[in-house]
Write a structure and sequence with these properties.
7 helices; Rossmann fold; globular; 202 residues; 6-stranded parallel β-sheet; alpha/beta
Length: 202
């Protein structure tokens, strides 16, 4: 059975994707304790044990702050998880299986300006560009970028936000399933929002 590994496995998006894929695929959703995407040795060891046919780079981190007032350690953590973690896992998986499919979970923040989200926006923009570069280099890779999504992380950041205005994780997961089945062109970045998800799923 085709093996899929989804990083950041404790998050709502990872759980929603797993729920849509289980049964048709073998799905592993390691959390940070099992797979810290920033740890080179731990990533190497994990992917020696589990060699996926499909890798979904989903681990993410954000603590909004002005660049002048931020905790620079937190900013480094965001860039390490969002961008380096994607490089670390992708490189390791492709060394074992150059034909593996890579699905990067980006963000609409990659192409939108948010003043206090600079490390998140910049690192996700890097993921979108890396996706295009890796596709040009001959690898099977796409990026699926959610907009505002009803996750625990989002609720923690915006507790007063109306959840009815947000993309549902299970609807986003349906788009990821389409990517798993090869619907999208290599190198493509698919922006997914509450407003366009129905059209994407037709």
């Amino acid at each position: 059975m085709t093996l899929i590994v989804i990083t950041g496995g404790n998050g709502d998006i990872a759980k929603a994707i797993r729920n849509k894929l289980e049964g048709e695929f073998e799905v592993l959703t390691p959390g940070k304790a099992e797979l810290d995407v920033t740890d080179i040795e731990q990533v190497r060891t994990y992917f020696l044990k589990y060699q996926p046919d499909i890798l979904i780079n989903n681990a993410g981190y954000v603590v909004p702050a002005s660049i002048a007032e931020c905790d620079i350690v937190s900013e480094k953590k965001a860039i390490d998880i969002n961008l380096f973690g994607t490089f670390n896992c992708t490189s390791t998986v492709l060394k074992h299986n150059p034909k593996a499919k890579i699905i990067n979970i980006g963000s609409s923040a990659a192409t939108k300006v948010h003043g206090t989200w600079s490390s998140y926006c910049a690192s996700k923009a890097g993921v979108v560009m890396a996706t295009q570069c890796w596709a040009e280099d001959g690898y099977d890779v796409v990026c699926i970028s959610p907009g505002r999504t009803a996750t625990k992380m989002r609720k923690g950041l915006f507790p007063e936000e109306d959840p009815n205005t947000l993309l549902k994780p299970e609807d986003f997961a349906k788009v990821v399933v389409k990517a798993v089945h090869g619907t999208y062109r290599k190198g493509e970045n698919i922006n997914v929002s509450k407003d366009n998800v129905e059209a994407l799923l037709k």
